[in-house]
Amino acid sequence: MSNRNDETTTVAMLRDMVRRFAADREWEPYHTPKNLAMGAAIEAAELMEHFLWVDGPGSLELMKDPDRREQVAEEIADVACHLFNLCNVVGLDLSEAFRAKMAKNDLKYPAEQYRGRYTK
Questions:
Q1: N or C: which end of the chain has fewer CB atoms below 10 A?
Q2: Which DSSP string do the residues of 2-34 spell out, in sequence order?
Q3: Entry pTM
Q4: DSSP H or E run through 73
């Protein structure tokens, strides 16, 4: 097992990996916010396609299949790649944005009121 996992890899490391990948291919002119946002949406749709017409428990069952799990992992990585790239291009600190959004979510959906519920 590799020691490069979520416990040891920083967001900065992943962003740098994406930055170097794009730079090595001289893709920066194509990496506009519009193109990267659209790319993220397209990759998210490809991720959703794996679960189309499957119910909730069935979607969990699908993840037990090693081939399907690998395909889903690749689509998740594609979405993340576009998001990291977008953060690089617009100079956004993903960790800061994530923490700020979670703080808003905490206020919008207090645990006492929403525990065990998904409706407003």
A1: N
A2: -S-STTT--HHHHHHHHHHHHHHHT-GGG--HH
A3: 0.90
A4: helix 66-90
Domain, as residue range, for 20: 11-92
Q: What share of the chain is helix, strand, coil (3-state, %, to 5)?
A: 70, 0, 30
The pLDDT tens digits for 60-96 are 999 999 999 999 999 999 999 999 999 999 999 999 9
The pairs formed by 13-16 with CB atoms below 8 angstroms and a separation of 24 or more are: 14/80, 14/84, 15/84, 15/87, 15/88, 15/94
Residue 108 in any domain: the answer is no
48: CATH: 1.10.287.1080
Q: Give a yes or no: residue 32 inside a domain.
A: yes
- Structurally, how many domains does the chain consist of? 1
